[in-house]
Write a structure and sequence with these properties.
78% of the residues lie in helices and 0% in strands. It contains 5 helices and no strands.
Length: 96
């Protein structure tokens, strides 16, 4: 089971099409919790940026959150999430 989870993290978009419907829905569920956590962390970092601007602290307190937001938004899991959503719509497993 652990080996499957490790391999799943490095799965390419082309390999997603070989998954069964059940596995694809499980993948979507796992990525959904990742997206929620990612959105929370980005919101927290935006709050830090706003506080830094308010107190006119244009130092690392402003640059580090900007860098982390960039890293969170360009994470490969975000691209895989979009590929999974497209594949679910293509197979008509998801309405939205």
């Amino acid at each position: 089971m652990r080996k499957y989870l490790i391999l799943r993290n490095y799965m390419k978009e082309e390999q997603l099409e070989s998954l069964t419907d059940k596995e694809l829905l499980a993948e979507e569920k796992a990525l959904k919790s990742f997206s929620i956590l990612n959105a929370f962390l980005i919101g927290f970092l935006v709050g830090i940026i706003i506080v830094s601007i308010y107190f006119e602290a244009y130092t690392l307190g402003l640059l580090i959150p900007l860098f982390l937001i960039y890293k969170f938004t360009n994470d490969p899991k975000n691209k895989r999430r979009k590929a999974v959503d497209d594949l679910l719509k293509k197979r008509q497993l998801k309405n939205n």
